[in-house]
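Handout, section B. The chain below has 298 residues.
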Amino acid sequence: MRGAKLGKTWQLHGMMLPGVALVLVFMYLPLPGIVLAFKDFIPSRGIFGSEWVGLETFEYMMYLPDSLQVFWNTLKIAFLKIVFNFPVPILVAVLLNEVRKAAFKRTVQTMIYLPHFLSWVILSGIFIDLFSQTGIVNQALGWFGAKPIFFMGDPGHFIRMLVATDVWKNFGYSTIIYLAAITGIDESLYESAVIDGANRFKQVLHITLPSLGPIILLVLTLSLGGILDAGFDQVFNMYNPLVWSTADIIDTYVYRLAIVDANYSLGTAIGLLKSVVGFILIVTSYLLARKYSDYTIF
């Protein structure tokens, strides 16, 4: 019976193979490399010839002033992204649901989805040009008599720009989740509200938003698992030494230590610590989602 079922769905299983291979090669095969965090790794001696130092690298990491700053920067940037990425897709989904012109609705949806599929390598080049001291944003400020703002060199302005550009890139894709949830709301609720004399604003306030409650809670809970993922691609392609004090995150710090400075043991130790904390957060968020939203994977 199972073989007959597999014979009907082998095409679907075949489509999964590239994704499974990608996960195995880039997620599971490198796992034995975490042993570098417990050794004083010297490339000429190799992994097995390098001296075993136990937790010494982790103790050294704790005394580095940059480590605490990097962890704080990661938490701050990730938290700000969650806070500002959270309400925008909900608002846009509710507004799009109220649009009655199908052609206009599809056009807006396509336009807001498109940035999600563009690489940060491309977008960072565009944003650096736009927000440079001679860019179009500072030129527009000059038309109103304002002084140019050093967006790419001022730590405060740079963080705001990181969050704003991340919201701009991803809110369209996140809107899909809420639009799908809105389409599942029972139409009889709106019909009853019309009979009771409720206008569109009251229907949104008392039917649409409360019906989105479970999915909003689920997305917010699951986002907790990514609190240590502040976005390597975006930060790495946009930051510079002038803003390292506030924009340097765990992933970029590990890249500089392990790849640029060739301190493989320290870079692996920091990356391993981030993975352990991230795993705990993901398990916690999953348990919370299962308890409050009845969301299960296994």
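Note. The mean pLDDT is 85. Compare this with the example in section A.
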